[in-house]
From TrEMBL:
InterPro entries the record matches: Trm112-like
Protein name: UPF0434 protein EV646_106160
Pfam families, alphabetized: Trm112p (PF03966)
Lineage: Bacteria, Bacillati, Actinomycetota, Actinomycetes, Propionibacteriales
Recorded family membership: Belongs to the UPF0434 family.
GO CC, alphabetical: cytosol
Organism: Kribbella antiqua
């Protein structure tokens, strides 16, 4: 399911943990932090980004395993 966010909104959103920019992962419906040390993936539900650190998924383990 593609993430449907306004490009202007996406351009100002940053990771709440480290303040880095996001990349969109349409396949997983997530915004993924571009900082490799942080790399948290935040869910997008009903076209609303859930930017709560407690809701984020840590993608660093997946990269190490891949």
């Amino acid at each position: 399911m593609a993430v449907n966010l306004d490009p202007d909104l996406l351009s100002i959103l940053v990771c709440p943990k480290c303040r880095s920019e996001f990349r969109v992962d349409d396949e997983a419906s997530e915004l993924v932090c571009t900082n490799g040390a942080c790399a948290l993936a935040y869910p997008v539900r009903d076209d609303i980004p859930v930017l709560l650190i407690d809701e984020a998924r840590d993608t660093r383990q997946e990269v190490a395993e891949g």
